[in-house]
Design brief:
The protein is α+β, with helices and mostly antiparallel strands. It has helices at 2-19, 50-54, 97-104; strands at 36-38, 43-48, 61-69, 72-84, 89-94, 110-116, 122-129. The chain has a four-stranded antiparallel sheet with strand order 1-2-6-7. It has a three-stranded antiparallel sheet with strand order 3-4-5, with helices on one face. The longest helix is centred in the first third of the chain and has 18 residues, at 2-19.
Length: 134
């Protein structure tokens, strides 16, 4: 019984080391370090919102803007996401409530990725939030 308990504690310790950046096994940070735009009629963009702020000389930008109904500040009617990687620009707009809700979750610590169709309508938005060491 004691041996089984030690095995369980050892497994927990290994898991904690792996999760908190142990020397061998740890997951890669899910938030991209740079803004990347794949341009085209249908395209994609991804990046960390904090990246341009951490490097003021960077010409990268990424984010989303929530449009509100006149006089109804708490009622969001659409979202427009944009990204510039220094060479390519991508943007899309959506009135889909699920995409709007995802965009509302963005913070300066978030990673953002989005895709658009040939009408520049956002087809997908992903918001990642994680604390990662560089």
């Amino acid at each position: 019984m004691r041996l089984a308990r030690l095995g369980f504690v050892g497994a927990l310790l290994f898991s904690a080391l792996a999760f908190h950046g142990g020397t061998e096994a740890h997951a890669q940070c899910p938030i991209p370090a740079a803004v990347v735009v794949v341009p085209g009629a249908t395209g994609a963009a991804s990046g960390a919102l904090g990246t341009p702020r951490q490097n003021p000389s960077s010409s990268q930008n990424i984010g989303c803007v929530l449009q509100v109904a006149p006089g109804l500040v708490s009622f969001v009617t659409s979202v427009t996401c944009f990204a510039w990687d220094g060479t390519n620009y991508g943007t899309c707009t959506s009135t889909d409530p699920q995409i709007i809700e995802a965009a509302k979750q963005l913070t300066l610590q978030s990673g953002l990725s989005f895709t658009w169709n040939s009408s520049a309508v956002c087809t997908q938005i992903n918001v990642q939030t994680a604390a990662c060491n560089p």
